[in-house]
Every structure is written in C-alpha cells, then in structure tokens.
TrEMBL record:
Name of the protein this chain belongs to: Phosphoribosylaminoimidazole carboxylase ade2
Gene name for this UniProt entry: ADE2
Protein's organism: Naganishia adeliensis
Length: 397
C-alpha cells in the first residue's frame, strides 16, 4: 500500500507536487480553504469516501484530522502552526516532514539567521529591533550596520512583503517603514545591506535515510524583493568567481545539515564581489527557484520532495539541458491581459513550457504562473525569452 501524503496548503506548490504524485500513484490529501484551490483542481482525493479537507491550513482541528488520515504530513508553506505539528507527531498520528522544529525555526527569520550564524554559516550582519524602537535605537543600529538598513518582519514574510529598506533616519522614513512592517505589533529585525553582485539559489534534498543531493546553483533575479527570472546553470566570470557553483552547493548542503527532517529545501544566497557567498534565507519546502527542474532536470524538485519524505531513493538532480530560464508570471493589476499575452508568445516559442496555476483572481504582485524555457545555449535562451518578457512589458531586467 502506498502511504498517503497530507499537504498543508493547496497553492501552486501543492499543484506541482500533485503531478508527480499522480505519476507515482501516491495518494494525496490537501488541506486548504475551498474545494478548488490550485492544488485541489489537479488532484482527485484518494477515494470516493475521502475528499480533500476543506479548512484553513493553520487550523489546529483540521491539521489534527488530516494527521489521522495520512501517513506523512508535509507543507507547501512554512507559515503553519508548528506547535500542532509537534503534537501530532508526538502523539504518533503521523510523521511530519520536514521536522516541525525546523519549520518553527525557519518561520522566524531572525531566529533562523541566529541559528545559521551559530553554526558558522555566513549571513549578512543582523540584529533584532527593540520593541517600540526610538530614534536613538535606530541610530544605534545605523552606527553598526550603516544605511540603507534592510528592515524585515521576523514572521509571516513572503515575496518581499515583510521587507522595507530604510534609506535615512528621517522621521518620515522611519514612520513609513514602521507603518509598512510593524502593523499589529509585529516583531522586526534589521540586516545590514548586502551589496551582492548576484543572487544565487540552490535546492537541496534529503531523504529520511539521510541521503543528500543538491541541484546546480541558479541565478535568481528579483524586482521589488519578488523573484522574476531564474537562470540555470549559474554563470559568473571574474576574479574570485572560480567554482561558485561547487561552493554554493557545499554551503547550501552545510546549512541544510544543521536542520532536522527530510524533504527539499530552497537555499537563497548572495554572491559578493569578492566571490564569497552569504545565506539570505532557507525555505523548508519546494521553492520558486527550483521550478525549472520540472523540464530541465532529470528529477523535478517536486518529485524529489515526495521521494525524500517517503523514504524512497532520491532521483538524479542533474540538468538535462545546456541552458534554461524560468520566468514568473506576476500580476501587474487585476487584469490577466499582460500574462495572457506572454503566454500566447510562449506557445509560439520553441522550448517554452507554460504553467498557469488556475488562480481565478489576478492581483498586483500575485504569482499567477510561470514559463520555463529550455535550450542549447545561454544565447539561445536569451533570444527565446526576450519576446516573452516583451509581451508582459517586463524587459527592464
Ligand atoms: P521569499 O519570497 O523568498 O520568502 P522574503 O519575503 O522572505 O522572500 P527575503 O528573501 O528576505 O524576503 O528578501 C527578498 C529579497 O530582498 C532578496 O531576494 C533580495 O533581493 C533582497 N534582500 C533581502 N535581504 C537583503 C539584504 N540584507 N541586502 C540587500 N538586499 C536584500
Ligand atoms: Mg522568505
Ligand atoms: Mg527570500
């Protein structure tokens, strides 16, 4: 009998987990509000008697019921109730992968940074912002880290929504940052600005047995703190840039080795001018910088996540193509039109695969889908993606 996998969250990552699950005959139960979330749309519940649970993925009662109904519980989002996950595992209702403690640690980006630093892993300098910080507190932080200060929410952050660069200590700027981030008494921390030359990400997967594999490093390009484009393999030239791929993979594997549990992890990094690498943050789940692995690698990040949590051997992480790019389809307003235009061009582009997530409402900043393009060379990839980017008026990258 195949083990049933329960997923907290029914968004696009769940949707992309559902594809290999269907191929491998793995029964899924997806917990999210509504009956037609992106993941539920593409996955039938395992039997006529067992529908996907309809409830918030943060709801303790729903999580407990799901834990009773599945063998292994996993997450497509880290903003879940980690204490309940700890409980259901303690009570033996099911296993949880990755470990609830890992999810809990990662949820608080400040604690995550402290953990990495304590394990000797390079991160940008950082510290907590005192509650009710005064101008003097901000001045003290400025004296240590300089300007701009990257101010971040400790919890519930995604797609840059918990970040606000503080460019000066003027009353107006401080008020703006606090207004953006600290509503509802959210705890904050700051990071010194990292003047990176590139952003890099590595997906690392570890199965229950402890076997580890990592994918080749990719270059990620963000705009307004949200991932836009991802290129693989990573190419960098210049002094100190030798072996960046190998070093990025080693650093990512070392960081993941400090965390408990099985599954795939997305490790975001900054590549500095001297070739050194710092970790920005880690996601304990499939990650946007690994979407290209569906078309461009021997085994996708989604399949490898399922293999990892089900104690199966890990699949090869090797690239199958010389070059690839992934373009996010992000809403610019409530109109799908720019995305529809880009998709139309993609259908006419050799090597392009269209992914639309089935979200009914388009909103500014919302990830509606992505396009992966594969090709024989970087030059070919660039010429293939140009018209697509043009169609969504996103060419300033
Ligand atoms: P995600 O959607 O990846 O979870 P997030 O909301 O958790 O994102 P971060 O990963 O902390 O946000 O930051 C988003 C982006 O902001 C980074 O990818 C990078 O481009 C920029 N950034 C973050 N921290 C710094 C820093 N210390 N210095 C300079 N730029 C930064
Ligand atoms: Mg994050
Ligand atoms: Mg990030």
């Amino acid at each position: 009998m195949q083990q049933t996998v329960g997923i907290l969250g029914g968004g696009q990552l769940g949707r992309m987990l559902a594809h290999p699950a269907a191929l491998m005959g793995i029964p899924l139960l997806i917990l999210d509000k509504g009956t037609a979330t992106p993941a539920k749309q593409v996955s039938l519940a395992p039997s006529p008697h067992q529908a996907h649970p309809d409830g918030a993925f943060t709801s303790p009662e729903h999580i407990r019921q799901l834990a009773r109904d599945c063998d292994v519980l996993t997450v497509e989002i880290e903003h879940v109730d980690a204490a309940v996950l700890e409980q259901v595992e303690r009570e033996g209702l099911c296993t949880v992968q990755p470990a609830p403690g890992t999810i809990k640690l990662i949820q608080d980006k400040y604690l995550q940074k402290r953990h990495l630093e304590q394990h000797g892993i390079a991160v940008a300098p950082f510290d907590a912002v005192p509650e009710g910080a005064t101008v003097d507190d901000w001045k003290a932080l400025e004296a240590r880290f300089g300007l701009p200060l990257m101010v971040k929410s400790r919890t519930m952050a995604y797609d840059g929504k918990g970040n606000s660069p503080l460019k000066s200590l003027s009353e107006e700027d401080i008020k703006h940052t606090m207004g953006t981030l600290a509503s509802g008494g959210k705890k904050l921390y700051v990071e010194g600005w990292a003047p990176f030359v590139k952003e890099v990400a590595v997906m690392v997967v570890r199965n229950v047995k402890g076997d580890v594999k990592s994918y080749d490093a990719v270059e990620t390009i963000h705009k307004d703190s949200i991932l836009r484009v991802c290129f693989a393999p990573l190419r960098v030239q210049g002094k100190g840039m030798l072996d960046v791929n190998r070093r990025a993979k080693e650093l990512a594997e070392r960081a993941v080795a400090t965390l408990q549990g099985a599954g795939i992890f997305g490790v975001e990094m900054f590549l500095m001018e001297d070739g050194s690498l710092m970790i920005n943050e880690i996601a304990p789940r499939p990650h946007n910088s690994g979407h290209h692995t569906i078309e461009a690698c021997e085994t996708s990040q989604f399949e490898n996540h399922l293999r990892a949590i089900l104690s199966l051997p890990l699949g090869s992480t090797a690239l199958r193509v010389p070059s690839t790019a992934m373009l996010n389809l992000i809403g610019t307003s409530d109109s799908m039109q720019p995305i529809t235009q880009a998709v139309q061009v993609a259908y006419e582009t050799a090597g392009a695969s269209v992914h639309l997530y089935g979200k009914t409402e388009c909103r500014k900043g919302r990830k509606m889908g992505h396009i992966t393009v594969t090709g024989d060379s970087d030059a070919q990839i660039r010429s293939r993606i140009r018209p697509i980017l043009q169609a969504m008026q996103d060419l300033d990258e």
